[in-house]
Amino acid sequence: MAATALSTKTTRRRIKTSHLLAHLVLAGVGFTLLYPLIFMIMAGFFTKDEFASRILGLFPIAHEPTWWNFKVLVMGSSDSHIQLYVRNSLIRTIYSTICAVLTSFLGGYAFGRLRFKGKEGLFLALLATQMIPGVVALMPTYLQLARWPFAGGNDVFTGGTGILNTWWVYLIGGPAINIMGTFLVKQSMEKVPIELDEAAKVDGAGPFRILFQVLFPLQLPIMAYIAITTALGTWNDFATPFFYTSSDRLQTLPAAITRLTAAATGAFGTPNYPLIITLGLGTTIPALLIFFFFQKYIVQGLANTGIKG
Asked: Which of 62, 179, 181, 61 is nearest to 125 (CA)?
């Protein structure tokens, strides 16, 4: 009995030690991941001159803290129309998210439930486009937008600027078929019993009612995953507004930060790094909040593949 009790105590001690080590490791990893955010918040209280003249430590503390950088982030200034950039980012994010959800659901339904000639070949071709790096498509996309027929002074194929530097870059050139979303919906649709469609038809439901009242609710976890990932990707998108627009009124927040770097730099001066870092914080926090509150839907969307037949 004494030996058994001693063995039990030893086992418990080992378990407590392993738990402690695990928590320490997780705390260290968590701090490492959160440190850039902490540094950005602390740097936002610096003035331009103090930030440039001091040697910063691990946790920089301003001797003369200021709220000016955060006021610019929230209210804007004469040379940085922050509200405009945030509004453009929100409009583009919401629009692209709605388009991604609709195209993914309709595309997944077409490939998962309908029968038509060449379906498998077309679907494989769509999947193959995922192998093309996005940077490779920058120049072809630019030429496509610049040579858009009968727009921006173009006739059919030559001259003019097409739809570059217009909202059509976001409305036409931005949304695209979400290949991963279409794939997930297709896989889920194939596992939903066809008897559901037949039962709905017997009850008098038409194609659109079956589509949006019977099948769509079953795909909600996947739809949530598609919406969240698309919103995060669009909100953080730097390339599209930076390469395809030049007007200040069309900038989104991530691309505007780069342009504001030039505005924050004098002819022979030093960049206003506290302002630039604070603007970057304004871009980061919404994405972090979206991920923090909706991360469970990302897991559910990947794990949920519909009803098994």
From this structure: 179
Q: CATH number for the domain including 60?
A: 1.10.3720.10
pLDDT in tens, 61-102: 888 888 888 888 777 665 557 788 888 999 999 999 999 999
Output the six-digit token pair for 206.
Answer: 């038409």
Q: Which pLDDT does position 307 carry in this prediction? A: 40
Q: Is the residue at 30 inside a domain?
A: no
Predicted confidence at residue 263, as pLDDT, reads 57
Q: Which position has the token pair 């440039």?
A: 52
Q: Show the tokens assigned to 134.
A: 């996005």
- Do the domain assignments include residue 5? no
User: Into how many domains does the chain fold?
Assistant: 1
Classified as helix, coil or strand, 17 is helix
3-state SS string for 161-218: CCCCCCCHHHHHHCCCCCHHHHHHHHHHHHHCCCHHHHHHHHCCCCHHHHHHHHHHHH
Please list the rounded mean pLDDT of every run of 10 residues in the chain (309 residues): 55 68 86 88 87 82 86 69 85 91 90 86 86 83 86 74 89 74 87 84 83 85 87 87 87 80 57 82 83 74 53
Cα-Cα end-to-end distance for the chain: 54
Among candidates 146, 153, 108, 113, which has minimal Cα distance to 127?
Answer: 108
Host domain of residue 285 = 36-303
> Which amino acid belongs to residue 224?
A
Torsions phi, psi of 77, nearest 5? -150, -175
For 264-298, the pLDDT digits (tens) are 555 456 677 888 888 888 888 888 888 778 777 77
Q: Is residue 12 part of a domain?
A: no
Inter-CA distances, 66 with 28, 73, 263, Å: 30, 13, 20
